[in-house]
Structure formats: C-alpha cells, structure tokens
C-alpha cells in the first residue's frame, strides 16, 4: 500500500474522521447529497473533485465551520461543530483563502496565531517554510506563494495531530509546491493525519494513501490509491498500418476501439499479456505499430471517468 | 487571547491611515473645534460637551466598529480566527476592545479639554458616567449589527450614515432641555438628555432617557445577533 509498515499497523486500528450520509445545503441548493467516508490515523486522505463538487463544503463541515444539514460527522471522536473548542488545539486548518489582515507582519501573525490557535509554537515555523528573511514584512507585501507558505506555517504550528489542507498548492511555483510536499511528508512521517483537497491529481497520486472523488455532491470513487488505480483498465494505443482492418488484430483480453483518426485504443485489465500478444503478432506479420504507448491508469483517468459517470468503486 | 487579539486589532487600526484618521483625528479635531468656538457663553457648554461625546461614540466607536469588522470579514480574517481556539465571543471581544477603549479615552480627553477651556465641571458626574457607558455599549452593538449589512469596508461610509446622524441629531434634541416623550425613540436623545442633566439641566426626564439608552442598546444587540456574519459567503 505504499505506507511504512508502522503506520499501516496504526491505520488499521483507529478511525480519526467518520462521515456518514453527510448532507449540506446553501438555502435550497444541496451542495453535498449524502457522502460517506472515513479517514484513519496517520494517513493522507485526498478529497478530489471538480469545482462545485462539494469538496470545500465538506472540508468546512469537518473543520466545524458549518453545521451539517443531515448525517453525522465525527472528528477525533467529537462533533466538530458543537465541540469545536475541544478540537481546536488538536487540529491545524489551512483554508482555501488565507484570511490574513493585510497590515500585520508575518512574525506578528505567527505570534498572534500561537495564542489564538491554542497550539504553542514548538519550533521556528517561518524557518521551516523558508520565510525567515520575510518575517518583518507586512503581509500585503508578500507574494502569493509566500502568503500560502505563511498559511501552511500557521496550520502546522505546534504540530497538530490532524491537519486539514484545502488546496494548499494552488498558485504556487514548482519549487514552493515541492517544499509544501516535503513539509507534508515530514508531518506524515511523524504520524500526523492529513486531509487534503487539490486540483493537481499528480499531487494526490504522489501523497495520498486513500482518496474519495466527489462529483455533484456524491462520492463517485473511493478507496486506497492502489485499489482505485487497479480498478481502472490500463491502455494501449497505436496507429494501425494503412489498409489493415481492425478485425485483423489478434484476440486480446481488453476492449478495442478504432478511432476515425486510424488510432487504435485497447482498454484492458491485462496490460502485460495483451501487450505481449500484440507485439508478437506485429513481429510475426512484419508490421510497424506507429506511436505505440502502453500505460497503467492514472488518477487522471479515474477522475475523468468519475466525471463522465463511469462508476468505479474500489474495495 | 483577548489581549493578543486586541493588540493586533489596535495595530491594524493605527496602520490603516483612513481608519486611523476617522477614529482618532476626526473626533479630536471636531471636539477641539467645538471647544474653541465657545466664547464663554454659559449655557452653550452643554451642547459642546454633548457633541464631543456623540462624535466619540459615532466616529470612534460606531463607524470604526462597522468598518473594522467589515474589513476583517472581507479579508476572511474572521473566518480564520474561527479556525483557532478562541470562541466567537472571545474573537469579537478582542476585536471590539481596543475600539471601545479608544472611544472612552477620547471622550475623557475631550471633556478634559472643554473643562480646561472654561466649561463647568458636571453637577451630576454619575449621569455623565451613565451616558458614557450607555453610549459606548449602544454604538458598539449598532456597529456590529451594521457591519452585518455592509458588504465592503468602502460601503461602510454609506451604511453608517443614517444611524450616525440620528445619534447626533437625537443628542442635540435631548441636550436642549425637556423633550416630548416620542423624541426618545431617536437613538441619541436619551444620551443627550443624560448629558444635559449631568451639566445642571432639567433632571425630570432621567428615567425616560436611561430607558431610551437601555432599549436602544438591547435592540442593537438583538440586531447584531440577527445580522452579524463571519463569512462573506454567508
């Protein structure tokens, strides 16, 4: 499962977040329409979906900022809305928008947050996020990336046991994004549980242990990263040589689609076998298969299928 | 936590030039102007003191509370603070505290200036204290309520105008002597009447005046509970 053994042992034992039949409304509009999932201790759980899928609404409910319209939510065994005060010193939250007053400096903001978050600073968080040299600059003069890093610095202040990150890397340059990932990996290694939303699927693919993809307020896909990817067919693509009909292809385990462009696409659960059969056939017939590509499903494929309504449910 | 929030809020207030000018310089300048206008006419001082106090309540407390809360909400700072350990009451108290203190200090400084310029010492300081406490409470609650219906900090200049002028005009009515009871429905009348009575004016309307101040403070608090929002998204 890609987890260090010690973490796997723990993750089997304890559910940190339990969401059952969650429903959220804005007036008459039901943004979240019955969502279930759970997050286990020590894992990174990614909540994915398009804009308007219900990610942030779900996050804000977990964070205790809004009451659910229906269903139940338990965070560290508590009701996040009613028992917000008890949860705060144990959870770090990075909202989608930072929410900084423009005229405080980075250092003043860290000092204020050390008091109001209920979590005392145990290290120099500004140094950890490479903001040390900008500590006395007013927040309005920081760049977008620096503000996002300050935001992360505040969220991880005092090492909370549960961390919510709502699109932490949106708008960051590649280097800052990498630094954010390093910080998150460091926290995971220390045993922090992380709930992440992101629009960058490669980010989820490289960090997440388990995930759920929301679509129009419902869970379209959920499971461990490995299972979710394995449930999707792999793909082989190539250009069929001229004057050859698709019926000439050998028997394959997967489904064959012949596109009008002449490109053939094989969607298969048996990538290695089908590829071997195909290449052996081409070798025997002396054919060149143009621009051949073979790859396992990526989160991109899973995401696309979830949006177009092809149901995939991994165990 | 309240102290940390209050110190941060005071810094924000003083670092924003427009807000600082409106909250600090404006009432001081107008208050000073009123005091210097006086040429030793005996009865005029009541009006001067009333105006000084109401400008402190109106500008320093009411308009500043409205503008500050609206700006902090717009910045999503209020939303952020709710992700911390401070309860809603603590967050609001922390943000309001420096503004309230500023309003009280300013009112006292202006009164000091007036007395130094020749105004008589109040005959009933207890009534002055009542007006001070009531006025600050009422203006503060009204500011919280008004920020709930104010989308941006710029719009606060418009949304605060009706209550602000009602406060000043009512205060002038009230300080002028005995008024018809319905006039106490205007928010500043009770305050003006108490100030007038404190400086030797008629004291037979202390009851209705105190009642008017209390009812306006309660009504403003109720409206604050109804209209105040933490998140611009609602």
From TrEMBL, chain A:
A GO term, aspect molecular function: ATP binding
InterPro entries reported in the protein's UniProt record: AAA+_ATPase, ABC_transporter-like_ATP-bd, ABC_transporter-like_CS, ABC_transporter_ATP-binding, P-loop_NTPase
Keywords from the UniProt entry: Antibiotic resistance, ATP-binding, Nucleotide-binding, Transport
Record-given protein name: ABC-2 type transport system ATP-binding protein
Compartments it resides in: Cell membrane
SMART domains per the UniProt record, alphabetical: AAA
Organism of derivation: Saccharothrix carnea
Taxonomic path: Bacteria, Bacillati, Actinomycetota, Actinomycetes, Pseudonocardiales
Coiled coil: none
UniProtKB/TrEMBL annotation, chain B:
Keywords, in A-Z order: Membrane, Transmembrane, Transmembrane helix
Superkingdom as given in the UniProt entry: Bacteria
Record field: transmembrane: 19-38, 44-69, 89-115, 127-151, 163-186, 206-228
Protein name: ABC-2 type transport system permease protein
């Amino acid at each position: 499962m890609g987890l260090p053994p010690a973490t796997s042992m723990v993750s089997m034992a304890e559910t940190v977040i339990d969401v059952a039949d969650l429903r959220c409304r804005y007036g008459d509009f039901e943004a979240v329409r019955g969502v279930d999932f759970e997050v286990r201790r020590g894992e990174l759980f990614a909540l994915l979906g398009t804009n308007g899928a219900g990610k942030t609404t779900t996050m804000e409910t977990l964070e205790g900022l809004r009451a659910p319209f229906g269903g139940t939510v338990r965070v560290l065994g508590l009701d996040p809305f009613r028992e917000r005060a008890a949860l705060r010193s144990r959870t770090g939250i990075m909202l989608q928008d930072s929410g900084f007053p423009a005229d405080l400096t980075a250092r003043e903001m860290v000092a204020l947050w050390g008091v109001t978050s209920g979590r005392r600073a145990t290290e120099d968080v500004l140094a950890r996020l490479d903001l040390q040299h900008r500590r006395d600059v007013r927040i309005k003069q920081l760049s977008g990336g620096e503000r996002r890093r300050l935001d992360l610095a505040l969220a991880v202040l005092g090492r909370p046991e549960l961390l919510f990150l709502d699109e932490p890397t949106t708008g960051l340059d590649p280097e800052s994004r990498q630094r954010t990932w390093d910080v998150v990996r460091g926290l995971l290694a220390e045993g922090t549980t992380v709930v992440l939303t992101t629009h960058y699927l490669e980010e989820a693919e490289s960090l997440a242990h388990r995930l759920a993809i929301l679509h129009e307020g419902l869970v379209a896909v959920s499971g461990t990263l490995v299972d979710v990817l394995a449930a999707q067919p792999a793909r082989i693509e190539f250009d069929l040589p001229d004057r050859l009909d698709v019926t000439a292809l050998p028997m394959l385990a997967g489904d064959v689609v012949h596109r009008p462009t002449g490109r053939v696409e094989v969607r298969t659960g048996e990538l290695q076998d089908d590829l071997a059969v195909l290449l052996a056939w081409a070798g025997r017939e002396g054919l060149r298969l143009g621009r051949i590509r073979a790859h396992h499903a990526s989160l991109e494929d899973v995401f696309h299928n979830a949006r177009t309504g092809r149901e995939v449910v991994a165990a | 936590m309240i102290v940390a929030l209050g110190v941060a809020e005071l810094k924000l207030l003083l670092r924003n030039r427009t807000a600082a000018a409106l909250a600090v310089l404006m009432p001081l300048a107008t208050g000073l102007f009123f005091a210097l206008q006086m040429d030793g006419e005996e009865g005029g001082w009541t009006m001067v003191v009333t105006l000084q106090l109401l400008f402190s309540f109106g500008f320093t407390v009411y308009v500043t509370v409205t503008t500050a809360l609206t700006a902090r909400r717009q910045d999503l700072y209020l939303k952020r603070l709710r992700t911390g350990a401070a309860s809603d009451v603590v967050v609001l108290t922390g943000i309001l505290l420096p503004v309230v203190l500023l309003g009280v200090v300013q009112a006292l400084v202006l009164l000091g200036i007036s007395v130094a310029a020749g105004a008589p010492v109040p005959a009933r300081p207890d009534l002055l204290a009542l007006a001070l406490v009531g006025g600050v409470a009422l203006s503060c609650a009204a500011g919280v309520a008004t920020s709930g219906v104010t989308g941006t900090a710029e719009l606060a200049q418009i949304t605060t105008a009706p209550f602000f002028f009602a406060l000043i005009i009512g205060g002038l009515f009230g300080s002028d002597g005995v008024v018809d009871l319905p006039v106490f429905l205007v928010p500043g009348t009770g305050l003006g009447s108490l100030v007038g009575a404190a400086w030797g004016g008629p004291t037979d309307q202390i009851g209705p005046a105190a009642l008017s101040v209390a009812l306006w403070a309660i009504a403003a608090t109720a409206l604050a509970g109804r209209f105040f929002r933490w998140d611009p998204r609602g």
